[in-house]
Design goal:
- This protein is of the alpha+beta class.
- The chain is 31% helix and 31% strand.
- The strands form two sheets. It has a five-stranded mixed beta sheet. Strands 1-2-6 form a three-stranded antiparallel beta sheet, with no helix packed on it.
- Strand 3 (100-109) and strand 4 (117-122) form a beta hairpin.
- The chain is elongated and about 90 Å long.
């Protein structure tokens, strides 16, 4: 009998080295799997423009405070009909309808943050891609803007006919 048969086929040094190599290889395989999954899954996404939002954080907080100071009553809801749209009703502090001159809407589902949708509305559209405003009693509607059910981030900026700016950002559930 040889010495290898007496001690077994592998010495302890070889077994421990193989264990270390196996564990490191498993760690690399898990890392590669995580990268592949994160790149291929559309639900794993970074918030759009996160860096610019961080840089302009003070400005955005001041804009929200100024909007709150206007005292406008703004109601945001999803339409429950087949259009799957957004309805925004705005009234000033005296209860009068807001006459909107321009509005920009940014929407994205939390489950697919990499797929933001944007609309620009103008009282007199300057570009063919801009939608025309048709405010009735301070109400704006965006039909067909929600493509799926779930949590949506809704952000918009409104400029009224007197030059007052109102910004809004919130989450909503779309059924």
């Amino acid at each position: 009998m040889t010495t290898a048969h007496k001690k077994g086929l592998l010495s302890p040094a070889v077994r421990w080295s193989a264990l270390v190599v196996f564990l490191l290889g498993g760690q690399i395989a898990m890392g590669v799997t995580a990268i592949v999954l994160s790149k291929s899954d559309p639900s794993v996404a970074v918030v759009p423009d996160y860096y610019q939002r961080a840089v302009k954080w003070d400005e955005s907080k001041a804009a929200f405070a100024a909007s709150k100071k206007l005292g406008w009553d703004v109601r945001v809801e999803s339409t429950l009909d087949e259009t799957r749209g957004l309805r925004v009703t705005m009234k000033d502090a005296e209860g009068q309808a807001i006459h909107v001159a321009q509005a920009t809407f940014n929407l994205y589902p939390h489950a697919r943050a990499s797929q933001p949708r944007q609309w620009e509305l103008h009282a007199a559209p300057e570009t063919p891609s801009a939608l025309a405003l048709q405010p009735q009693d301070g109400t704006l509607e965006l039909p067909g803007c929600f493509t799926q059910s779930g949590y949506w981030q809704v952000e918009f900026e409104v400029l009224d006919d007197q030059g007052r700016r109102f910004v809004y950002a919130d989450e909503m559930v779309v059924l």
